[in-house]
Amino acid sequence: MELIVLLAIPLAGAAWAAVLGERPYAPEANTAFSFATLIAAAALAMRVIGEGSFSAADEQFFIDPFNVFLVTLTAFVGFTTSLFSRPYMRIEFEHGRIKPRQLRLYHSMYQLFVAAMLIALTSNNMGLVWVAMEAATLSTVLLVTLYRTPASLEAGWKYFILCGVGIAQALFGTILLYFAAEKVLGGEGMTALLWTHLNAVKGSLEPAVLSLAFVFLLVGYGTKVGLVPLHNWLPDAHAEGPTPISAVLSGLLLNVAAYAVVRCKVLVEGSLGSPLPGRMLMAFGLFSVVVASFFLWRQRDIKRLFAYSSIEHMGIITFAFGMGGPVANFAALLHMTVHSLTKSAIFFAVGHAAQKAGTQVMDDIRGLITLSPTVGWGLMLGALAILGLPPFGVFASEFLILTTAMRDHPWATPILLLALGVAFAAIFGRVQPMVFGETSAKRLPVFAHLGLVLMLGVFIPPSLAEWFRLAAQLIAGS
Amino acid sequence: MPDPTLSCLTLLGAWALIGFAGLVRPGSVFVVGRVLFPLGALVGVALALVALVNAAQPADQLVLPLGLPDLPFHLRSDALSDVFLFLLGAASAGVSIFGAGYFRSGEGTAPGLLCLQYHLFLASMGLVLLADDAYLFMLTWETMALSSYFLVTTQHRLPEIRRAGFLYLLIAHVGAIGILLSFGVLQGGSWQFTFDAMRAAQLSPAWAAVAFLLALFGFGAKAGLVPLHVWLPEAHPAAPSPVSALMSGVMLKTALYGLLRVTFDLLGEPVWWWGLVPLAFGLFSAIYGVVFAAAQTDMKRLLAFSSIENIGILFTGVGLAIVFGGVGMRTLASLALVAVLYHAVNHAFMKSLLFVGTGSVLHATRERNLGRLGGLIHRMPWVAWLTLIGALAIAGLPPLNGFVSEWLLLQAFLSAYQVPKPFLGMLLPLGAALIALAAALAGYVMVKFYGVIFLGQPREASLERAHDAGWLERIGLGWLAAGCVVLGLFPRHFIDLLELVPMQFGLIQARTIGGNWWRVIPVMERQAAYAPVLFLLVVGLVIALTVFVVSRLYHVRARRSAPWDCGFARLDARMQDTAEGFGQPIRHIFQPFFSMQRELPTPFDRAPHYRVTIGERIWTHAYLPLAELVQRTARAVAWLQQGRIATYLLYSFVTLLVMLGLVL
Amino acid sequence: MSELPFDLQILNALAALFLLLAFAMLAQRRVVALVSLLAFQGALLCAATLLLAHRTGQWHLYFSALLTLALKVVFLPWLLRRLIRRLGVYWDSEPLINTTATMLLGLLVVIFSFGLAQPIAALASTATRNAIGIAVAVVLLAFLTMITRRKAMSQVVGFLSMENGLFFGAMSATYGMPMIVELGVALDVLVAMLVLGVFFFQIREQFDSLDLHHLESLKEEQ
Amino acid sequence: MSVIPWLTQALEVLAAIAVAPLFGGWIVQCRAWLQNKSAPSIWLPYRAIHKLFHKEAVLAERASPLFRFAPYVVFGSMVCAAAIIPSMGTRLPFSGAADAIALVGLLATARVFVSLAAMDVGTAFGTLGARREMMVGFLAEPALLMVIFVASLISSSTALPEISDALATQPFALYPSLAFTAVAFVLVLLAENARIPVDNPATHLELTMIHEAMLLEYSARHLALMEWAAALKLFNYACIGFALFVPWGVATEQAQTPAALFASLPILAAKLAAAGVGLALIETVSAKLRVFRAPEFLATAFLLAVLGLLVNLLLRA
After folding, report:
1. Is the separation of the CB atoms in A401 and A319 below 8 Å?
2. In the structure, what pLDDT confidence band is assigned to residue A371 with cuts at 50, 70 and 90?
3. Using an 8 Å Cβ cutoff, are C22 and C143 in contact?
4. Of the four listed, A73, A345, A350, B80, which is most buried by Cβ atoms within 10 Å?
C-alpha cells in the first residue's frame, strides 16, 4: 500500500506539472509533492523495519532493508532539493534564463525523475529496473539542456548518447541474465527476471552466461555510475545543467546506478563462486578514484570540480562493494549515504555561490564568506566534509573502508591514500580562496544535510546501524 | 573522589559549552572577552589540578555510547595523558586569560565564532589526550587540526595567510594519513581498533618498525620536525598570538604525546635502533630551527623556528630514551624520558609566554617586523619584563626552567657512552655537543629577539605612542612567567609527577631521580646535583650585598645625559643593529643552510638599498618538484577528456572488449 | 546443420542476413540509405519473431512482432526520414576511419564475438544455437558504426541498430523477454526517439548543422 | 659537620674577589716585561676600581632599569661562579648546588646580561659589541661544555670539585684526551675573556673591539662592577683550568685539613703567576685576528674538544 502511494505521488506530480507546471505556485506544489513522497517513503521504511522485507504486485516489486534505505534517502534528498530549487529557479526565472515552458518541463521532469528512481530502486524485476534507469536518463536529458546554450546542448547530447549506449549494453546483459535464468526457472512464468528468485537459485545459474552478462551489465550501469573510463558524460552534464539537477544527479542517480550494479554483482558472484566480479568492481573503483583525483587538479568550473569529486567517491563506493564482506559493504552503504547528503549540500551551496558571483568560474568567485556568510560556511564545511575530514561522516566510512582495505588488499591502500591526498590538495586549494579572501564585488537544506553528516560521523543511531548491517549481510549474500 | 576520566571529560565538555555560548551574542566583545575567556581559563586551571590529582591514581577507562557501531568511543586517563592534560590546562589558562584581553572585534572572524573555534580547539586537544581507540583519536586529532586551521585563517583577507592555512591543513592531513596507517598496522590482525587491542597485539619486528616509522612520520609532520616543518613558520605568524601560543606551546606537544603513546605504550618494547631515527632528525631540526630563527626578521616567524628547535630537542630526547630502553639501560631511559616531558612542559610555558608577549607588542605597535621595533621597554614595561623571563628561560639560563630540562637531558647524554653498541657509544656524546650548540645558539637568538624589540632606540616614531598591555593580558603574562620561575626553582616535585610516566611504561619500578625539595640528583650525588633555590639565593645574596656595600661605602648618585657612543654626536636609531645585522654572523657561518638572494648596492648608487631574502632549500629541492610532478600527471590525465564523443564511445567499446576478453 | 528443421534453417538464414545488414550499415555513408537499412533490419527482426511465434505458439511473441513492425519498421524510419528531410542532412561526411579499415575491424569483432558465444551456444537449449554470437556481433558492429560516424543522425541510426541487435538476440536466444519488459523497452525507445527529435531541432537552431564537431568544445584544456 | 668546608668556601670566594684584579694587573706586568715596556703599577686595577666607585654615574637618557641592574647581576653571577670552582679545596658545601653544566649556564647568564645591557642604549658600538660577544659566546660555550664532558667522563661526574678531586687523588696517568681539551680550553679562555687574538684588552677604541664596545656607555660604579666582574671571569676561567688540568695541591676530599687548606694558598698563587706569564706570552707572540676569523678560531677549539672526547671514548683514557 505504502509502495503504491510512494510511486503514485511523484507520477501524479509529473502529470500535474506537465499541465500546470509554470503557475506561480508551481515550485511550492513541487515541494509539496516531494514532501508527500518523503512521508510515504518514511512510512514504507517504518513498515520494513517493523515487518522485514516484503514484496508486492505479484513480486514485481520488492522491498528489503537495502533498497528501502536508499528509497528514504532518495525521497529525502529529493525533498530538500525541491526546497532548494524553489528560490534557485525563481532567481533563474527572474534573470530570464528560463521561460515558463521550461519551468513546466523542469517541474514535471523533476517529479518523473524521482518516480523513475524510486521504481528502479523498488522493482524486483531486473528488466523493469532497466526500464526505470532508462526513464531516469531520458527525464534528465532535457533538464540538462534546459538553458539551451550550446554547451548545455553538447552536454545533453553526450549524456544522451553515452548513457543510451551504455544502457543498451545493460539491456543485453539483462537479456543474457534472462537467458540463463529461464533454463532454471522456465521462461513461461514471469519469475525468470525476478531478483528474489534469481537470488534464490543463483547457485545453479550458468556461470559462463552470467559472467558474460555481468560484463555487459557492469559496463552498462557503470556508465551511469560514472566509472572511469565510462564517465565522460558526467562532468559535462553536471556543469551545464541547472544546479538542482546536478545535485540530484550526483546525490541520487549515481547511487541508484550503483545499487543496480550491486544487485547484479550479488547474483553473479553467487553463480560464479569466484571473486572475479568483486575484483572487477575494485579495479574500476580504484581506477576511477585515482584518475578523478588527478582530474580535479585542472578544473576551472566549480560544478565540474565537484562532478569529478563525485566520480572519485563513486569509485570509493564501488571499490568498497568490490571488496565485499559485512564491514566493507556497511562502509559502502554509509559512504553512499553521507556522500549523497554532502554532495547535494555542496551543490546547493555552489548554486547559491554561482548565482551570487554570477559565474561558475572559480577564479572569479572570491570572498563568499563576506558576500554571504551562510553560503561561505556551507561551501567550506561541505568541502571539508567531502574531503573526509572529521568529525564528518565521510571520515567514518573512509576510515572503515581504508582499514578493511589494509586488511584484505594492503596493496590498494597506498593508492587510495595517494588519491585522497591529491584530491584533498586539489579541492581544498580551490575552495579556500573562494570562501575566504577579499571579495571583488535563508539556506536551511545545506546545514540540514551537513548536520546529519556531522551526526553520522560522531554517532550512528543503533537502528540505522542495524539497518545498514542487515543490508550489508544481504549484499554479502549470507 | 570522582571518576578521573569522567572529571576530565566534564571539564572538556565545559570548554565546548563555553565555546558554543560564544554564539549567543557573537558580536559582543564584552561577553566573549570579559566572561567566556576568563571562564575558559578557570576551566584550564581546574583541568590542570584534576590532572595532577589523577596522575597518582591507576589508569582508568571509560566507554561512551557514541562512535562507530562496533567501535564506541573509548577514553582512558593514565599518567602519560595526565601529564599532558596538566600541560594543556596550565598553559591554556594563561593564554586564555591573556586572550580575554587580547581579542577585539573588527579583526577578521567575529569574536563569538572565534570563541567557539578557540574552545573547540582546546577541547579537541584534551580529547586527543584522553582517546583510547584509534577512531576517537583520529576524529579528535583532525578536529584539532580543523579548528586550529580556522583560527589560523582568522585574518583570511590576506592571501599569504590563506596560503599558510592551506599549507598547514594539507600537511596536517598528510600526517594524519600516516598516523592512520600506523594504527592500521598496530592492530596486528585483531582488527580491533581500541588501544587495548593494540597493546595486546603481537607484531613481528618488521611490522613493529613499520608502525613506528609511520607514526614518526605522522606525528613528526604535526610537530614540525624537519623536513616536514614547512607549514610551521607560515602558520604560527599567521594566527592571532594567543592561538600561535596554543599551537606552539600545546598542540605541538600532542604530537609528542602521540609518539610516546605509540612507541612506549602501544608498541610496548621498542627496539634500540628505532631511536636513532628520531635522534638524528631531532638533532638536525634543533640546529636547523635555531639557525633559521637567528636569521628571521619577523618576530613571530623567529619564535616559530625556535619552536622547531625545541621540537628537535624533544625528539632527540625521545630517541635517546628509545635507545637506552632498547639496550636495557632502563634507568637512563627513564631519565631521558623525564627530561623530555619536563622540556615539553617548560616549552609550553616559555613559548606561550613569548608568543603572547609578541601579541601585546603587535597590538601596541601593529608591527611584526623587527626592523620597525625597538625601545619598547620604556613604553610597555610590564610586557618587557615578563617577556624577559620567558626569553631567559628559553635561552636555557639558570635558575629558570629551560635550564633544568636541558640539564637533565645532558646528564642523560653524558651516560650514553656506556651504550654497548659499536659506534653508538662514541656518537651519542656528540649529540650532547649538538644540543649544547643549539642551546648556545638559542641564547644568541633570544638576545636578538629581546634586544631588538624591547631595547635600544625605537626604530619608528610611531613606537613612542605604544601602550602597555591591559590588566587581563598582564595576568596572562604573569601566570605564564610564574610558571617558568616555579618550574625552574622547584623541579623536584614536578619530577615526581613526571616519573610516573616511565613507571607506567614499566621502564622503572620505583623512583630513581633522587634529591629533596631544594635539589635534584638525577643519578647519584657525587655525579651531579642541582639546587636552583640555593643557586638563586647565592646570586641574589651577592647582588644585595654588593648593592648594600656600594651604597654604604660610596654613593648612588647618577645623572642623565646624552649617550656617549665614543663622542659621536648625531646618533640616531638607524645606527643600531637591525635584525638582519644581528643575524649576519649566523648567516655567515651557516651559509650552506640558506638559499639567499641578496641585492647589494653599488658604490655609485644615489639611493643605495640592500635587500636580502632568505629561503629554505627544502622548498626548492623537495616540495616544489613534488607539486610540479602532480601537475604534470594531471595534465597527462586531462588528455583523456578530449570532448569528442566518438572517442568516448571508443573508450566504452574498448573497455567492453577488454572485459569480455577477461571473462572469455 | 542439415538436420535442423526447415523453419530453423530459415531463422539461421535470417540471422546471417541480419549480420550482413549490420556490415552494410557499417559501410554505408548515405544517411537515407542507412535509415532504410535500419527499416530492413526491423523487418527481419519482425519476421524472425513471427517465425518463432509460429514455432512455439507463444501468443505474446505475436504481440511483440506487431510492436516491432509498428515501431521499428514503420514509425521510426518514417520519423527519421522526416527529420532528414526537415533538416536536410542526406550525406554523412567522410567517416573518421576509412571504410575498408572499418570493415576489417568489423570482421575481427565478429570473430571475437563468435568465439565469445561458443560456450553459450554449446548449452543453448533453444532452437537457435548461434544466435547469441550473432547478436553480440551486431551489437558490437553497431557500436563501431557509432564510433566512426561524424553526423549526429547516423550515430542515432547506429544506436537503433544496436537496439535491433539486442532484440534479435533476445528473440532468438530466449523467445523474447517477459511482456512487461518488452512494453517498457519499446516505450523507452519511443520516448528516446521523440527526445531525439527535440534534440535535433535544438542542435540545429544552435549550430545550424548536425555535424558533431560542433559538439566537441567541452573538454579539459590542455 | 666540620667547619673546614665552610671555611674553604668562604676563603675561596673572598680570595677570588680580592685577587682577581691583581691577576689582571699581573698579566699586564708580564706583558710589559715581555715587550720590554715600562709596566704600570701592579695595583693599578684596584686604584681604577676605587676611583670609578667614587665618581658620579652618568647614564644615557634612554638607559632602562635593565642597564643599571645588569652590572650587579653580572658581578653576582661571577662571584657565584667563583663559589663553585674548587680553587683551594674540593669539599665545598655549595658544590652540591651546581655542577659544571650549571657553571657554564651561569657564565652564559652573565654574557646574556652584558649583551642585553649593551643593546639597551641603542648605540652603534653597543649593538655591534653585543652581536660579536654573542657570536663568540655561542661557539665558546659548547666547546667549554665538551671540555668539561671529557673530564667528567674520566671522573664520571659533572660536579667540578668531584672532577678535580678524582683527578688529583688518582695515581698520575697520562690522558691524551686531556691534552687535546687543554688546548681547546686555552682557546676558549682567550676568546671568552676578550684577550688577543680575538679581542684586545689593551684598547678602548678599535673597530674590532668586542668587550670594550659593550661597556662604552657605562661609567662610575657600574663600570667598576663590570670591570671587576671581567677580572673575576678571567680568574674563574684560570681556576677552572687548574681544577681540570693541574688539580694537584688543592685540599682534597680525604685530606681537607686546615694545614692542607693553607698549603693550597701559595700553590694557587704559584699557578696563577704561571698562568699570567703564559697568557702574557701568548698575547705577545700572537697577532690579533680579524673578527670574521674568530668563528674559525673557536670552531678549532670546539673541534679539539670533540676530538678529545672521541680520543677518550676510543682509548678510555
Report:
1. yes
2. confident
3. no
4. A345
Peptide bond preceding A326 in cis form (omega within 30 of 0): no
Is A148 an 8 Å CB contact of chain C?
Answer: yes
pLDDT attached to residue C1: 43
Contact A110, A82 (CB under 8 A): yes
Distances (CA, A) of A402 to A385, A405, A411, B153: 17, 5, 11, 30
Of C135, C162, C180, the CB nearest to A128: C180
Closest CA to A161 of B645, B142, B332: B645
Q: Which three cell numbers stand for residue A396?
A: 567514518
The model's pLDDT over B587-607, given as tens digits with 9 standing for 90+, comes to 888 888 888 787 888 888 888
**Cell numbers that stand for B148 in this block:** 586550529
Among A100-109, B384-393, C209-218, the range of highest mean pLDDT: B384-393
Do the chains contact at D102 and B530, CB–CB below 8 Å? yes
Give, in order, the Cα–Cα distances in Å from B99 to each of B33, B114, B475: 7, 11, 10
Nearest to A168 among C125, C163, C180 (CB): C163
The domain limits of chain B are: 269-552, 590-663
Domain span at D247: 4-315
51-80 in chain B: CB under 8 A from chain A: 66-69
Q: What digits encode the pLDDT tens for the residues B402-411?
A: 999 999 999 8
pLDDT band at A441 (very low <50, low <70, confident <90, very high): very low
- Number of domains making up chain D: 1
CB contact under 8 A, B146 and A384: yes
Chain segment D47-60, per-residue pLDDT in tens: 989 898 888 888 88
Among all residues of chain C, which has the CA nearest to that of B636? C222
Residue B649 in contact with partner chain C when CB distance is under 8 A = yes
Point out the residue among B643, B646, B656 whose CB comes nearest to the CB of C217.
Answer: B643
Mean of per-residue pLDDT scores for chain B: 87
pLDDT over threshold 70, residue A188: no
Task: Write out pLDDT tens, residues A388-436.
Answer: 887 788 888 888 898 888 888 888 888 888 898 889 888 888 888 888 8
Q: How far is residue B121's CA from residue B141's CA, in Å, rounded to a whole number?
A: 10
d(CA C202, CA C211): 13
Residue B329 confidence (pLDDT) above 80: yes
Q: Other C-beta atoms within 10 Å of C163: how many?
A: 27
d(CA A21, CA A30): 9
Q: Return the pLDDT at B253.
A: 94
Helix axes B37-56, B79-102, angle to 10 degrees: 160
8 Å CB contact of A219 and B143: no
In chain C, where are the structural domains located? 13-91+101-208
**Do B and D share at least 3 CB pairs under 8 Å?**
yes
**What is the Cα–Cα distance from A305 to A430, expressed in whole angstroms?**
9
Answer with the residue of higher pLDDT: B15 or B565: B15
- CA–CA dist B192, B195 (Å, integer): 8
Q: Does C207 touch chain A (CB under 8 A)?
A: yes
A116 — pLDDT class (breaks 50, 70, 90): very high
> Quick check: helix, strand or coil at residue B172?
helix
Q: Which residue of B has its CA nearest to C152?
A: B645
CB B123 within 8 A of CB B116: no
Cβ separation C152–A142 shorter than 8 A: no
